[in-house]
């Protein structure tokens, strides 16, 4: 359950970048790793849990702004390639032995999360912390969905050239969603680091980046609630099909193809369709 919550947080950040900002960024796993190593570094220097997490988000946001500035003019495919390059370079650097990344990118003995002076040592205790963080982020997403800003973001995603002509600050909105979504990725990396008590560079490779993309696509681009379903599916399937680990990539690829062709709105679209069907059935029953 805790892994599902962490992945939901990271996927929600990627949702803001991809579904709202209209930019495909492979850098979300790099931001998670940066958040994790930053919080580990702060923790080793005696900074409290809250300071570690907030510091990780700030460092990640600054890094995202720098990446966004370098790739300012890159569009679509080239932006994706640029962020992929950043991630691959980052993973290599994180894997080196240094005071920041530990021995070969592995750091152990990281402190437990602390809330109101209480150490959260068990998975059950950490669950409520992660659930609270995810709830706050979802409330923010709901507010954003209902705000006028969503209209501008939709225009930026669908018609960037026309939006610029109409005076919509396309570049500023793209940068904002990229920085905000990346900071949430850094938050997820910090939280999973404190929960597990260690961090290793192998946990933040390209596979996780593709996994976050799958979570958002499988869940559905039409709603931020879809990331919960996508993350749950991504976490649950390997456990349910433990004997078929070598076929996971094929399974995910086939499932992604089915979702794109048959359910373009994602798994959340299936839920919405069932709700609509139930409402129509109820209405017919009442009319009869």
UniProtKB/TrEMBL annotation:
Keyword vocabulary terms for this entry: Cell membrane, Membrane, Transmembrane, Transmembrane helix
Entry-linked InterPro entries: ABC_transp_permease, LivM-like
GO MF terms held by the record: branched-chain amino acid transmembrane transporter activity
Membrane-topology descriptor: Multi-pass membrane protein
Entry's transmembrane regions: 6-26, 47-71, 77-95, 126-144, 172-192, 204-237, 249-271
Subcellular localization, as worded in the UniProt entry: Cell membrane
CDD domains in UniProt: TM_PBP1_LivM_like
GO cellular component, as recorded: plasma membrane
A Pfam family matched in the record: BPD_transp_2
PANTHER family: HIGH-AFFINITY BRANCHED-CHAIN AMINO ACID TRANSPORT PROTEIN BRAE, HIGH-AFFINITY BRANCHED-CHAIN AMINO ACID TRANSPORT SYSTEM PERMEASE
Protein name in UniProt: Branched-chain amino acid ABC transporter
The species this protein was found in: Rhodococcus opacus M213
Upper taxonomic lineage: Bacteria, Bacillati, Actinomycetota, Actinomycetes, Mycobacteriales
């Amino acid at each position: 359950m805790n892994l599902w919550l962490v992945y939901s947080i990271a996927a929600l950040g990627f949702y803001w970048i991809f579904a709202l900002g209209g930019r495909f960024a492979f850098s979300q796993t790099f931001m998670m790793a940066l958040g994790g190593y930053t919080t580990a570094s702060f923790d080793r220097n005696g900074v409290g849990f809250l300071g570690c997490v907030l510091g990780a988000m700030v460092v990640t946001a600054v890094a995202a702004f720098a990446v966004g500035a370098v790739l300012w003019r890159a569009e679509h495919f080239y932006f994706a390639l640029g962020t992929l390059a950043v991630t691959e370079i980052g993973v290599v650097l994180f894997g080196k032995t240094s005071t920041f990344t530990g021995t070969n990118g592995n750091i152990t003995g990281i402190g437990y999360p602390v809330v109101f002076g209480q150490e959260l040592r068990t998975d059950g205790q950490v669950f409520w912390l992660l659930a609270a963080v995810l709830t706050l982020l979802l409330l923010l997403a709901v507010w954003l969905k209902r705000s006028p800003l969503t209209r501008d973001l939709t225009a930026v995603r669908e018609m960037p050239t026309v939006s610029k002509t109409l005076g919509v600050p396309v570049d500023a909105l793209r940068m904002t969603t990229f920085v905000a979504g990346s900071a949430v990725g850094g938050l997820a990396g910090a939280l999973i680091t404190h929960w597990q008590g260690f961090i290793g560079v192998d946990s933040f490779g390209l596979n996780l980046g593709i996994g976050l993309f799958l979570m958002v696509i499988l869940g559905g681009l039409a709603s931020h609630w879809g990331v919960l379903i996508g993350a749950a599916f991504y976490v649950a399937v390997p456990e349910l099909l433990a004997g078929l680990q070598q076929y996971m990539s094929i399974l995910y690829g086939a499932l992604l193809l089915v979702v794109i062709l048959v359910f373009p709105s994602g798994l959340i679209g299936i839920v919405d369709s069932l709700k609509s069907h139930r409402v129509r059935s109820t209405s017919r029953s009442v009319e009869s």
